[in-house]
Amino acid sequence: MARYYFFIILMNMTLNIILNVPMVLVENRFNGSIMSILLSIPIGSLLAYLFTKGMSRFPKMDLPTILENNLPKYVYKPFLVFLSLMWIASGSFALISFSYLIKTYIMPEASLELISGLFVFVYIYGAVRQTASLLYKAEITMVIAFPVVLFIIFKAMRSDLFNYVHIVRMIHFTWELPNYSSVAAATYLFIGYINLAIFNRYIDSKKALRWFWTVPILGTGILLSSFFVPIGFFGINAIGDIILPWLMSADSLRMQFGFIERTVFLLIFFYVLMTFLFGMVTWHIGLELLKGAVQSMKKKTWGRSFLLIVGILTIIFQLQVNHREFSSIVKYWFNFRFPVEVLLVIMVYLFSLRRQNV
């Protein structure tokens, strides 16, 4: 079962090629984004390693059980509720981002409520399934989708519209001091490992560590391509006026002999699958964490009702903000998420050291 660890990490890395991470990096491209990317690779990899190493010392145990065994009830229960909301927010932000994308490129005449409602329905359907079934879905989805994404990245870099001069010009800003927002956003690509909080019940973390060296390699390639490929198409100045830079880049590509001429439609199709998967996983883990703090949530009816309320609130929130306002909110959320992630990793690793020394 160790392979599922890498599918979950790959899901998070691949999905954020086109969603919220590149927007933050592009916004700060003249203010330290490149140095932030270079810093985020060792930081994200180290956090992933420490958390995986820590969880490997708790075989077949999930985060609620670990916290229950190491913290008093009045501490671990509120903390689990807080973490649950963080996970659910992550899925909700992906839902909103992709709803905007679908409306822009696929269904311009459809209402956002309808598109978001479809995502909420799929999210809830998947989130209340068994944990093992989500891992199987992750494997099938990523085995199909990831090669297509790699093909599109390769095709983009081979395109006549891709100008390496823009990349060289961007590299001139490498030595600008990093900024916190860019580091927080870039490290988000590596955060798939954190799903071991629940998936550790089924994943053999010790075996996963043997192949952990692939994580920084994949993260480096995906992070650099998510930042530099759109710049190669539009230049270091024009890229700042584009909300979804990777989608615009993909829309510049054509497959002359393909059954779908516009590459962007192929990309969107597979990203819809990955967004469904991401939402199912994040809402499922959020619900499982909440069950660790609130016993009544273990009833299926309560769990579904809670997720339905979350879905309705997500749609209401989406209708209250435009896309640029939403992008700013996501940036603040990245900034808030990063120290929470660090705190959780340190906590689990210290608990694992205590367990090892007992």
Automatic annotation (TrEMBL):
PANTHER family per the UniProt record, alphabetical: SPORE GERMINATION PROTEIN A2 (PTHR34975)
Species, as recorded: Peribacillus glennii
Cited InterPro entries: Spore_GerAB
A Gene Ontology biological process term: spore germination
Predominant place of localization: membrane
Family: Belongs to the amino acid-polyamine-organocation (APC) superfamily. Spore germination protein (SGP) (TC 2.A.3.9) family.
Segments crossing the lipid bilayer: 5-26, 32-51, 79-98, 110-128, 140-157, 177-199, 211-244, 264-290, 302-320, 332-351
GO cellular component, one term: membrane
Superkingdom to which the source organism belongs: Bacteria
Keywords: Germination, Membrane, Transmembrane, Transmembrane helix, Transport
Topological type in the membrane: Multi-pass membrane protein
Protein name: Uncharacterized protein
Location relative to the cell: Membrane
